From TrEMBL:
This is Uncharacterized protein. It comes from Avena sativa (Oat). It comes from the Eukaryota.
């Protein structure tokens, strides 16, 4: 009912078990003939409270529920103009079960009638403490890019919905031009000896090349976007005879999740996450700070190895010859497209005969690992093929475990999100390890997360090998979960929820020591912990991605430097791509070792 507003005044808000509560505040109900505009609301509040706009100013905030189902969590959203009022109304009525407009107003007597009226939006911004420090701040090197928020993002210091005019206003700072392709004007504050004054990061422009087509900018301009189309493939049928090859490869964690039943990818959730991904920093920009998927998440959720050689090679044998040599047969020749057809692989290798020899088992094991790696970790956008780039590395079963599959998975996902965040068409695809992306989101955010009713893990005492122990990600597929009914316009609903995400809703450190001990995880989940804070690049064949854990130190339970150190993720690296047709002509070194460098 958008023509009825409850107005609360005459006191202070209180913190309750479900977030913000009104306590003993005075309540007034205001009816309108139709959904009111912001101006009509303020005029009605003045009249209802018996106040004169010439002698009193109003500061308004709306209460909304950002929880889900029976788990309600109320926060306050400042309202200062038509845009912030419209956003608040949409957040309340877009699929939530708390469809009531509740506005809290604070009144303040003007110093004199001649004093210029200051909008409540600017009052709220000016009320922030001058020494406020936040995880999101402009980079110390002004020659690079500066802003770390899109215009559609919420103010970094508080869950405030600002007008477009306020978000794009020019700060009182110097200006330089970003030197490089897709040049864009960059504004930055003054830095001396590493110190900086608090700066609203939303006033800083982003690299024009990325921001021009970014989904977040399109949403801010009022464009209706559709969900991205997730791409992943189901692996082949598992056979217990493959375990002797999977354990040394460090892939049992992923195998156990696959065997238990892969969760369906939530298109709306992953699309809403990608909307907040920034290629400049390789992080998600939330109202409460930056977060990202780290090597720690890859280890804990999927149990993939981090230490090892980079996933790349100098290919000397064509793929068709490799297929014939290691699979015993080659697919029909297709020069136009790279990869192995899912239908062909399933027809040839989905069932390993019971009474077959060891060599045949090896061939089926290679096909299974290819379907696991090429279908879940590195899926491409084709929709009907397994990514075959890793096949030469998989073919050597004895040395699969010598590669850093975890860092390669993260590199591929980073590149996929950097590409997808600029796709606005209805046919836009999202590749990368979406299983990792979704489970990572469930571990940290309440948005779109199923309710864990009962944790159900296998009895580790009955396992033959400790490497078969579970990973953190397994709990979401073997545990008893209840899935909340999808709200109407699910994608828009999740987008609004992320716009209103608060600090206390985020699980910043889900891998606490006491929890890890209780779960009795596989050793591979923590064996490479010394590499979680490395600054080495992430490599997957022709993809080289910058890894920036220094921007999200809070996720590791460490102190976050503000502003965080800025390292360029390189526009040129994001541009670099190569077709499968010419990839074999490249000469990549295959002796790169993933190493650790202290921060």
């Amino acid at each position: 009912m958008d023509n009825f507003v409850r107005v609360y005044s005459g006191g202070e808000l209180v913190k309750g078990p479900s977030g913000v509560e009104f306590g003993d505040l005075s309540e007034e109900g205001i009816w309108f003939k139709a959904a009111p505009t912001y101006g009509e609301l303020i005029d009605a509040v003045y009249e209802k409270l018996g106040l004169d706009p010439a002698t009193h100013s109003l500061r308004a905030q709306g209460r909304t529920n950002v929880g889900g189902g029976a788990h309600r969590h109320f926060i306050m959203v400042p309202i200062g103009d038509d845009m912030s009022w419209s956003n608040y109304v949409k957040a309340v009525f877009n699929g939530t079960d708390w469809n009531c407009l509740e506005v809290y107003v604070q009144t303040e007597k003007r110093a004199s009638t001649s004093t210029e009226v200051v909008s409540s939006e600017h009052e709220l911004m000016d009320s922030e403490p001058p020494d406020a420090q936040h995880q999101n701040a402009p980079p110390p090197d002004p020659a690079q890019s500066a802003s770390l928020f899109t215009p559609s993002m919420v103010n970094a210091y508080a869950p405030t919905v600002h007008s477009m005019r306020a978000r794009l206003r020019k700060p009182r700072t110097n200006t330089r031009t970003y030197a490089g392709k897709g040049s864009a004007e960059v504004q930055f504050g003054q830095y001396q000896c590493g110190a900086s004054e608090p700066v609203d990061t939303t006033t800083y422009t982003l690299i024009g090349l990325y921001d021009m087509d970014h989904r977040a900018r399109a949403l801010a301009s009022g464009k209706n976007l559709t969900e991205l189309n997730p791409r992943n493939r189901e692996p082949l049928r598992f056979d217990k005879r493959y375990e002797c090859y999977l354990r040394p490869a460090g892939l049992m964690g992923l195998v156990n999740i696959s065997k238990a039943g892969l969760p369906s990818i939530d298109r709306a959730l992953v699309s809403a996450l990608v909307d907040r991904w920034r290629p400049e920093t390789h992080t998600f920009h939330m109202p409460c700070g930056e977060l990202t998927i780290t090597l720690q998440d890859v280890s804990m959720i999927l149990g993939l190895p981090i230490a090892g050689r980079a996933v790349t090679l100098n290919q000397t044998e064509c793929y068709s010859e490799s297929y014939q040599r290691y699979l015993g047969k080659a697919p029909p020749l297709d020069k136009a497209r790279h990869g192995l057809k899912v239908a062909w692989i399933r027809a040839q290798f989905n069932n390993c005969p019971d009474d077959t020899d060891e060599e045949t088992v090896k061939k089926h094991a290679r096909a299974y690992i290819l379907s696991l790696v090429g279908g879940l970790l590195f899926p491409d956008a084709s929709g009907d093929r397994y990514n075959a780039y890793p096949f030469p590395l998989i073919a050597d079963l004895e040395n699969i475990g010598s590669y850093s599959w975890g860092s390669a998975t993260l590199a591929y996902l980073y590149r996929a999100m950097c590409d997808a965040c600029r796709r606005q068409s209805e046919q836009g695809n999202l590749t990368g390890c979406l299983l990792l992306l979704q489970l990572w989101s469930w571990e940290r955010f309440p948005i779109g997360r199923p309710d864990m009713v009962k944790l159900k893990y296998p009895n580790v005492d009955e396992l033959e090998d400790e490497r078969d122990r579970p990973t953190v990600g397994l709990r979401w597929v073997v545990g008893v979960c209840t899935y909340r009914s999808a709200p109407a316009r699910c994608y828009e609903h999740f987008t609004n929820e992320f716009d209103l995400l608060t600090d206390d809703q985020v699980v910043w450190s889900p891998y606490r020591e006491e929890r890890v001990e209780k779960l009795q995880l596989a050793p591979i989940c923590t064996q490479d912990s010394h590499l979680w804070l490395t600054q080495a690049p992430l490599v997957f064949f022709f993809m080289v991605e910058v890894y920036t854990p220094e921007r999200v130190m809070r996720q590791f339970g460490l102190h976050q430097e503000c502003p965080p150190p800025f390292r360029d993720t390189s526009v040129e690296l994001h541009w670099y791509d190569v077709s499968a047709k010419y990839y074999h002509l490249l000469h990549w070194p295959c002796t790169i070792v993933f190493y650790s460098r202290k921060l």
